[in-house]
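Regression report. Comparing outputs from two consecutive submissions.

Submission 1:
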Amino acid sequence: KQKDEELKQKDAELARKSQRILELERMVFGRRSEKRLPESPNGWAGSFFDKDWAKEGKQLSGEIPTIIKEVEKQAKQRREASCNARSTRKGKPYASYVPNDIERVVTEIYPDGYDENRMVIIGHDKTEHLCLRPSSFYVKVEDRIVCRLKDAKPTDAKIDILEAPLQKQAVDCFADASLLAEIITGKFVYHLPEYRQSTRWKEYGINIPTSTINSWVHSTANALYPLYKLQAKLILQSPYLQVDETSVQVADRKGKTRKGYLWGVRDALHCRGVFFHWKEGSRSGAVPDELFKGYHGAIQSDGYEAYSRFENVQGIELLGCMAHVRRKFEHLSTNDKNAAHIVKMIAVLYELEANLKHSNASYEEIQAERKSKAYPILKALEAYMKEVHKEYLPGEAMEKALRYAFAVWIRISRYVQDG
């Protein structure tokens, strides 16, 4: 009996090490998992079931195949429609690449021997190519004219000198607003470092040190700060926010970097954009407390425990992220049949949403479909996860994935109440 127990412990240790190897391989060759798991093994934040979850879960097992079959049938029709739409564009595949109102420069090419006096045009055979005008630099010279009255004499006590006022720039530097916009867009949208932009400009004969470009970036950020405050205020008025904190390397010490956190807040309802919040790189619960003080609406986040403080705050509805839950099971699905089943069931929920989007369903139709189809699947998944949880030892990767799902399952499932 003692040997059996030792073998069991060794098998569990081997399973943990094997899983760790898989995780490391994913870090090198694939996507990484995110965020911390709940510390408490009893982190179940609620349940759909008032009484016997096992009994009700078995009752649902007869209903689920019908729902899955219907969702997959609609998904197949959606994919076929997309394939048919693509096939109609095969003659001119580039037609979907460019907008209809793009500028077209037509060059008429006449055949050798054409004589307009003896010939009539009976058709046009057109070939199109997408072209690019290379960007170019120029220096804008603002020549402010200085003048005085013609009949003024040097001996006059007062001579009126007229000159147009200096045009004020948002950032007082040599670079025009158009160039500053290009730098900022390149750096933060297209991930072009300042040194790379400087190197590229040298091909045009423009030699600007990276340090100068960096000072322009900082000056622009300072000039736009009031706009940032207005953007943050506008976004925080949305009744539905998505928030996440991400780690960044902070270079605020000479020769060293430290790990800090940047909080991103997105307006998920009106698509008014995103703003980033920085509090000395902190990830503590005091940051969201300050950020969402007085807020009323829905906040969607991952399972980081700092967000749990809003679960009982009046006026705030906390939502979860299924992508984070799915990712943890997806990493295990290759070698674990329970994880593979959970991933398959979650995929049906995603297919349902894709079908609704494709059919341009109304809010009322979406809500009805979620209640009739997504809700039973979510209940069945909860019952299934509770059932298989006992198969795993504490600390195993699958047990951790289940514990994470338990902690956020009610938050994730609240979306079925809305359209």
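Submission 2:
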Amino acid sequence: LTVYDKDYKNPDWMKDSVVYQIFPDRFFDGNKDNNRAKLLDGYRGYIGTDGTLKRYEIQYYDGGVENDPASSQVWGSWRDYPENPRHATPENKPYYPNSKTDNIWTNEFYGGDIQGIEDKLDYLKSIGITAIYLNPVAWAASNHKYDATDYKSLDPMSGQPVYNKDGDPNSGLNYEATRAASDRVYQAFAKAAEEKGIKLIADGVFNHVGDDSIYFDRYEKYPEIGAYEYWKKVWDKVNTGKSQEKAEKEVIKEYESIKN
């Protein structure tokens, strides 16, 4: 389903624009304080045989940060290339005996963020650009951000994380406070771009979301009730012999007692 305004017309400013496309994570690291924002959340994951979530680790290509709580996950620096995960497949491993890939895709992060783009606005202006086309910057699990976690908020690795314990990534994110703080980062950036006469075009992916999202919540991370989270509870009850109707009623009652 594609929804659009049939009377929409391209704005006049776009007709003569010089557009510069930016993949935020690979552009410039303006705030190292957000590089470990998802240390505890990790990258997607899987449910183990014991029924608990096993999170994949993030690979950091930022050369490490001060007092790094994840030094063992630093795979390289800004100028290093991530290894192709296919090197770990059985058919390719003989050709890459020294491969150390974790066989996971899109979990390599270099630390580029919105502050980094704002820091370079004068440079971008100097080369003659009049508009910036941003790859998705909404909260998402992957480095490319085409698998939205939350459409309404800036990703904390691009914005400003707020932890449950001040300054400690290992304490996990305070989601509500992180959303508010990160949104302020984007608002300040948008204002700075406008003041320099630079338009912003934000890429959005609205025909699907990620499994690691508030809408689906396969890994049961978020305060919101995701579709997977709901139906998993329903079918767990059905598998004990209850009817689907009774199972749904019980699950709804359980959720009604929880502040969402």
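Expected: both submissions complete independently.
Actual: both completed, but the second showed a warning that disappeared on reload.
Relevant detail on submission 2: Residues 148 and 167 are 26 Å apart (CA to CA).
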